[in-house]
Specification:
Three copies of one chain form a homotrimer.
Chain A (H helix, E strand, L loop, with lengths): L1 E7 L7 H12 L3 E7 L7 H9 L10 E5 L10 E6 L2 E6 L3 H5 L6 E5 L11 H14 L4 H4 E3 L12 E3 L2 E9 L5 E6 H8 L3 E6 L4 E3 L2 E2 L10 E5 L4 E6 L4 H5 L6 E7 L2
Parallel strand pairs in A: 1-2, 1-3, 3-5, 13-14
Antiparallel strand pairs in A: 4-5, 4-6, 6-7, 8-9, 9-10, 9-16, 10-15, 11-12, 11-16, 14-15
């Protein structure tokens, strides 16, 4: 069975997610629909990008990801169907996709499915599901879109190195209060080489001097730094809420000083 | 695969929804179960009716909708299996169905599946799933119920016209803070004819003089009126929380004055 | 289709549940995944045990239950695959399973799937899904684990009888505010014999003198005692929030006095 994932800010209390699923099953019945999250903060494409970027590689080839956050278009932006690493992504060209992909996508199509007038308020249901089912039923992207070259680009704060210091920031606080930074494991490792380091936050109020492999490498209630399943530096407390207990919030700065042993 | 939808006030933290699904899969394994919402406010059949009324037409023929809000029965009310527009609806005859259907259902059956004594506290799991699987396995309604003529009727405030004024009220606030009224698009359009109008709320503190086609027909942060995917007049703020920012709550009055150009 | 259930404290806002499901579908595509709950309070194995103990018997033989609460292991504990009443249970051996099972499991295996180094932070995704799919694809437990004899035992407060009194406590407050105790129906009935009784709580401030069969055996707003679908004594208010209105919280004592008529 083909797989369609949903990443939206539709929430769970209303009928919105239900009718998106109904529309899919009406159009292409034999499909597995997987909720990634419907609790992206409303209109927040940075969180939407973080969520889908952290998810897609766990799914098999051919999976179709519908991104229903800010799905509306205007004169400058369009609805896109993108092929990337043998998966498909459908959503509005509002910059979110430039934050998800590390490389240029294989193919990008601007959707030309003409929306009925009444489709304007709910493109996730009325357009994205149609595009997804078109692909699942064996249709080609060319039949519902025209090739375009580029995505709308959105700048993102990336972790940077200055002298012996690596500077990043908090990009997501998860359900447990674990603190995700934008410091990638590969960047950290190549910059570190064989040096020692100290991770500082809250203006030096707290520091951590090693990277652990698991939360319970430290005693319960202790702070711990590790690389998460998204390969990003994460600051956590073993069985505790790091965001609350350490006072860390989104956009806070994280500094890592490196020095020779 | 047959489709069963669930609309309940069971919430998501407990095991209740899980055991409803387990009971379905134990009885009829090859079925798609779709959650419409499990966050209907507890015991609120008006919200339950709004939710399912806004949803069912997105699903294909043959879909079975289980309505698990106030599923208990008493001497005057029974469990029903209803056929309406080639779909099935299962729930308690507490008035909720009269709020969902615009026309008389094709067929109404009072369920006669004799509940075991221990089934009384959780009919959604113990009775409704059995009725749904019976239909999916090819059974007829007659085998598990006896035909009845009428539903328990529940009165609902409908939008009304007085002179040149149309008066409705807020019936639902969605996850974004968008405000749904009980003013239907067809009623508005036939009453309006070619006249201009002004939508007033908060006792005239705010007004809107046109109907938009999409949220972003107005600048971000501006109020907007449009007909939602449920074909009801909706008052929203483009990328904002209209309920909070405009102080609109459930049951508040919305007035529309019409005048010749 | 085989069934995998998920009971976790992962929450619904992050991508965590999505990637667990993606990992399953990548490994064994034709499977029904059922969420029991992802809102177990963080790290709370008592609530996890209550939830899964209340759920598993609603599922058919062969169902595989993944328990993703405190999934990390240490020197003394391991990841387990357990066969119990013709179903499978996968999770960490932290005592939670001793709280779920009333009898000794048919077979217990310590998982020997060697985790890659990067798998340490998310065993639910990286280890439990692999074990589940191994079984679904027809593999034997012996191929991924070695038999062990015992589970880590965790003591649980059980309801006790002292003279003519039965003493239990509140173990769970559900989404409606219904109050679940640890007093089992069979224990109550055998201890009661033919005697009358009074259920007392809040140090005798409130009492209930009969067991009802359904919430609406009492008028709306009235307190009611009944045996829930989990066969535990439950104290509720018909269409009300018993926890809030009666001031009952987890771990509060419930006493039942029995006396001859």
């Amino acid at each position: 069975m083909a797989i369609i994932t949903l990443t939206t800010d539709l929430g769970l209390k209303d009928h919105y997610v239900g009718v998106v699923k109904g529309s899919i099953l009406k159009d292409c019945p034999n499909v597995q629909i997987v909720d990634i999250s419907h609790q992206i903060p409303a209109y927040d494409i940075l969180e939407a990008a973080f969520t889908l970027k952290s998810s897609y590689s766990s799914f098999p080839d051919g999976t179709i990801h519908i991104l229903g956050v800010n799905p509306e278009v205007n004169e400058e932006s369009n609805h896109l169907l993108i092929e990337y690493k043998n998966q498909f992504f459908i959503g509005a060209d509002n910059g979110v996709f430039s934050l998800i992909f590390d490389e240029k996508p294989q193919r990008i199509f601007e959707l030309t499915i003409s929306p009925h007038e009444e489709d304007l308020t709910f493109p996730t249901k009325d357009i994205f599901t149609k595009a997804a089912c078109h692909i699942i039923k064996g249709g080609t992207p060319e039949m519902i879109g025209k090739p375009v070259k580029d995505l709308v680009e959105k700048a993102l704060f990336r972790a940077v190195s200055v002298g012996n210091t690596l500077k990043g920031l908090v990009i997501h606080i998860d359900h447990y209060g674990n603190v995700m930074t934008n410091i990638e494991e590969t960047f950290f490792k190549s910059f570190r080489a064989a040096r020692d380091f100290v991770i500082e936050f809250r203006k030096g109020e707290y520091d951590i001097k090693e990277i652990s492999k698991a939360y319970n490498d430290v005693p319960e209630g202790e702070k711990v730094a590790l690389f998460s399943s998204s390969n990003l530096l994460e600051i956590a407390i073993n069985k505790g809420d790091a965001s609350k207990l350490l006072g860390l919030r989104k956009s806070d700065t994280i500094r890592i000083e490196f020095y020779d042993r």
